[in-house]
Each structure stands twice: as C-alpha cells, then as structure tokens.
Amino acid sequence: MGGVGGLTCPACGGPLAPWRSVPASDPSLPGMFALARCAACGSAVTLGPAPPDAYATGAYAARDPRLVRLAAPVLERFDRRRLALLQPFLAPGAAVLDVGAGRGRFVAGAADAYERLDQELGDGIAGGSEGPS
Ligand SMILES: [Zn+2]
C-alpha cells in the first residue's frame, strides 16, 4: 500500500506521508523542495522531479569544488577511516553501496577492495548512477 501519490519508501516500502518543504542545500538550486516521510522507518524522500539542470550545477557541476586541493588530504583520511570502519563487516570482493554518493569519491576510493556501487537519489525516489562522473 503506497502513500503520497502511491509512492512507497525506497528504504522499507512503507507508506509516505507529506512532511515539510525545505530549501535546497545547494545554493544554486532555487525554490523549496517538498519532502515526504515514511511512517514506518522515518526516512525522508524528496517529492517531484529534480530541476533539469540539478546535476550539472552547484556541487554537481563538472568543475572541481572550491578548495578541492586544500580539502583533498582531509577527505582522503576521512574516506580511509570510513573504509576501515566497514572492513570488519565486509568479505573481500563484497559489493559496497553508497546511497547519496555525490560524486562517488568514497566508492571510487574503495574500488580496489570492493565492487563499486553508488546510488544518488533523484526524481524523488532512488535513481542512480554507477561510478563518479
Ligand atoms: Zn521506510
């Protein structure tokens, strides 16, 4: 049984109910975005389609983010720690799914040890991409 517009929670399949509207976290995206929330697990889902250029502007633009060189050593250390936290739970060669993977930096770095699967959320419900672009 679905909730808002027959949509179900991508995490658990529970019904979605209208929740709230929020501004985009990326300043390049104008307007407000309606969210629904799963009554069963509490996950939030963006309703409606993403703006057509949402994946070509702001944080997803084809250029390097600001201060990328300065942040690179910190991000690299952060990603190594994330991977170290996961390793006790993963068999060698296991698949790693990173939901909300952004540019896929973490899974790209983990690709030497694991099958890489990254999932970006779009169109209100899980869409996807494989690998960084
Ligand atoms: Zn749910």
Give an account of the 3D structure.
By secondary structure, the chain is an alpha+beta fold. The protein folds into 2 domains: 57 residues, no CATH class; 59 residues, no CATH class. The strands form 3 sheets. It has a 3-stranded antiparallel β-sheet, with no helix packed on it. A two-stranded parallel ribbon has the order 4-5. A two-stranded antiparallel ribbon has the order 6-7. The longest helix has 19 residues. Zinc ion (ZN) binds next to loops.
Number of alpha- plus pi-helical segments: 2
Q: Average pLDDT value?
A: 79
Could you name the ranges where pLDDT drops below 50 across 5 or more consecutive residues? 122-133
Ligands (ions, cofactors included): zinc ion
Order of helices and strands: EEEHEHEEE
Q: Largest sheet, order of strands side by side?
A: 1-2-3
Output the radius of gyration. 17 Å
Helix content: 10-25%
Strand element count? 7
Beta content: 15-25%
**Main sheet characteristics:** 3 strands, antiparallel
The first-to-last residue Cα distance is 36 Å
